[in-house]
Amino acid sequence: MKQYFFLNAKWSLMGALLCILGTSMSFAQDTLVFSDLKKVEEVSSIHEEIFPLSFGEKQLLFTRIYRPEAGQQTIKYGTWCLDVETGAEQQLHLLEEGGKEAIVGVTDSLLYVKQVYQGEIHLFSLSKAVLEGGESKAIEVEIPGLKDISSLSVCATGDIMLIVMSSGRRKEQDDLFVSFKKGLSAGKEHWTRPKSLGRTINSMAYELSPFLQRDTKTLFFSSEREGGKGGADIYRTERLDDTWQQWAEPINLSEINTEHFDAYFVWEDSLAYWASNRDTAAAALSDIYRAEGRWNKVELAKDIVDRQAGIVPDTTASLYANRKLPLSTAESPAEKGLFLLDASTSVKEYAIEFGVGSADLYWKDIALLNKLSQVLIQNRNYMIKLQGHADAVGSSDDNLILSRQRAEAIRHYLLEKGVSFAQVKVQYHGEKEPLTSNNTKEGRQQNRRVEIYLSKIDIEQ
């Protein structure tokens, strides 16, 4: 069994030295916007600092991995607590047995502490009162089926644990798994056998440092997957159902990721912490960073809100005329055979346009999307590819985000209608692929679009 705690050997000192789906009223996925990014200098040292956990407004818990002394190979680490107001820090000793320990979860009443003792990995729960000088008996946590475990993360709700460990199908890469709390018996805390989070999360590269928000749907994790900035990047995704297998396409937090190692992201209220080695000379040891953050909410368009309130708007305007393929004004959707599937169908292409700086869906879009959802539900051997685009007004970074929001708005609506997650793929290109010139109002309108490609699923893929 591996004896390192947190990072794959490739990334850590141990290796170097060793949708919103939920209750949201929006069909588009909200985005995180960061500001005031900086290193937490109070905890920076010649050693490595990782795994930050915010404990209230005044305390920050983190793990410090010590640089081995000359001639030594043993890695030492421990949990420390920073007083954010005074800058004072102290090491915590929570378990009597000794050994290397680190806090891996903070709930409303409990701490979860992982320990390596005499070569074995153990997990315990304790009352959070120990952080205030109180006493607590350590309760052993039992999880069947653990193997080659790298790290753990316990959700603040206290009943969900995310585990980083070998999947068995790949010897050198770790995957993310979930386990659920069953209860106490025979003096132990029992959890379910770990279950994989599925292939949307688990790529063929390294996955590590999961953090599940209290809503139990929003997941942050790091990965070395293709499309990142070069090192391990931080991603955000949303759980789409209760199987824990279906997730929205992970979004790269490009505002805070670098070409180096970025991981162990945690988010609470308006403050984010994570670990990164971006500023180290040897690019090997990580420090703790923080940033102010806020959600960029994407609200429903007014006519959808009116519709939900029972106000029926004018439905004569449809998006059939917004097809990228030519469509005569004399042709109706039925006459044109819109979404008519048969053995000869391979690809059909359509486009939905959006307002200035908006990812809102309007009522005139809904008729087309309802028809499309029916086709996909009745024909599970078909899929769609949604390609989001923007005009050239504003910054290219903002337009890239906006193009993703537009494609996600359509995907979320279709998923709510019952379309399978596997049938919908999202891509986004910002302002890079204009349909026409951005020099005119009409041209910019045509460029603010999501192209919809309907095709048969290639079974061999």
UniProtKB/TrEMBL annotation:
PROSITE patterns: OMPA_2
TM spans (from-to): none
Keywords noted in UniProt: Cell outer membrane, Membrane, Signal
Signal peptide: 1-28
Domain OmpA-like, residue spans: 341-458
Compartments where found: Cell outer membrane
Classification via Pfam families: OmpA
CDD domains to which the protein is assigned, alphabetical: OmpA_C-like
Gene3D superfamilies membership: OmpA-like domain
Domain of life: Bacteria
Protein name, entry field: OmpA-like domain-containing protein
Keyword ATP-binding: no
